[in-house]
Give the backbone structure.
Amino acid sequence: MNPLALLGVLSSAVFSGTSLLYTTLGEIVGERSGIVNLGLEGVLLVSASAGFSVTYLTGNPYLGVLTAVIAGGLMNMILAYLVVSRQANQLASGLALMFFGFGLSAWIGREFVGAKIVGLPRLAVPGLYRLPQLYASLLRFDLLIYLAVPVALLIGWLLFRTRWGLGLRAVGESPDTAYASGRNPRLIRYQALWLGGMLAGAGAAHLSIAYAMNWTEYMTAGRGFIAIALAIFAKWHPVRAVAGALLFSAAVAFQLLLQSSGVQVSPFLLNTIPYVLTLVVLIAWGGRRRVAAPASLGRVYQGAE
Amino acid sequence: MSNPPDRRRAGSAWAGLARIVLRYGAMTLLALLLFGVILLISGKDPLQSYRDIFVSTLGSTYGFSEVVVAMTPLLLTALAVALPSRIGLINIGGEGQLYMGACAATWVALTFGSLPGWILLPIMVLAGMLGGAAWAWIPGMLRARGIVNETISTLLLNSVAPMIVSFFVFGYWHSPMDTNKTPNFSPSARLPTLFDTRVDLGLVLGLGLLVLFWFVMRFTRWGLEMRTLGGNPQAARLNGIPTRRYIIGVMCLAGAVAGLAGMAQVSGYYGVLLANFSRGIGFMGFLVSWLAGGSPMGIVVTSFIVAIILTGGNLLQLTRDLPYSMVNILLAMTLFVVLARPSFIRKRNAS
């Protein structure tokens, strides 16, 4: 296998994995505060369609990214209102949000199917011009890709090195205890979902504005669910999510390479890797307490009054 | 959202039902109001749209039969959620189990398509149920041994099953003309339809199983033991109820029911296995069961309402030139309203 092909795999893995990474980070933030967002798929679709249509209408991809990010946050606010303020069942609320996203994104994007946009510009890293043209072109990424790992580190720092993160994780483990120590579980969960939605929105923006550069209904094709699996796979840690996202997308990118060298592996079986691997990891952990999910994940916080 | 108590006076059951219908009626109205805003923004007349939706679904025998067609798989996938919920298990895996049931039934239909219907169909039903049951056995077994929570494992397996179906369809089963679907099933592999409509035998199976579910839960030892297990697992264990066997068995049964829904979809509704045919029927089943609080009668009513919304969506697409998927907004609005339970329609003696 020549290095160029390997670089190609890596480059395409980075491209397809970026949206996954942002989305996973968003799910991790939410789940760390105790809220599982099954509606992620719908959030992604709405962000992707909103970002795409704004990019098309204004011709400015950065404005599109901003729109997608805000749209993601707003979608999560619906979930936050239902599960935090109205104390609704998280799973049912998440699935309802998913269907809402299916419909809303189809509505937003209905006039933009097949539209062409100027995607997020790719920026060369200074210094890389010395490489041969072919290599350099494989290493030209867009802003969202360059920011992906720093954002993951930032989220890691926020969750594990700040007072706010400590409070968020405390709420995720035991809202009552967090309340007793002077935190406001409801407010923190709203904040976590807002941040998580914005991150998912960034992922969706990368998908529709930088990677696919078009809009079709259901274009996310299960990425929301992969992100939910990946959040578990990464043991709810942002930095491990980077490795996970790269691993999962490399597996799919690798398939292209295999195909070109004559080895036939069904893409559908390769697409099951994220889910199967996560299940295998869960089995390997065997329900041990040390690696368990945030303790209050999925539970309704009734309030302390 | 509590399950109905076990003992209830005969008269109050109907009163309770009336109250539920009234409550959901008011909520649906609010949802229609919200969705109307979106129709208005799209430049459509909401009142006219709703009138058309109503006329096209409940206004004619054909429309009504189409609603029943859309309702059929929901009955089964909702039951696949309601059954495990009685022993405290959360099965979000209906979608995946449905796909595996469809997959297994299709294999039978394609392999033994020349057999006469009276022998082929029972084998297909059995295969569909086995396919779904096998898929649900994995989470059941993992849960019974305390290894993986069934909520997570069913969710993960949901995404795997459609890929397996696609693997077979694209790789081996596709018809010469298409890549994403099998050849049409032979007539003997089609579930018979009723009264010259598209309503098929799946409806009878669904309603029959719901009655059976109600009967078993209420009048048999299994039902009693399951209710004990759901109410107080520790007491159940101390009383010698085989917890593990129940967890695995009930999950397999739930998978079998969802698998049957998949079989009915490919054998009755489509007559062909299409990759990614479901688009969330399993998830809708979860929502239906949740809205109905797992009660059989509630499942029938809720499925019917959801089916009206889904069928009405065709109209939006045909005469209002809006994407079909927009019907999901109306569905979600209804769900949001129910989930948020606004105070003016909340039950007075809320539990």
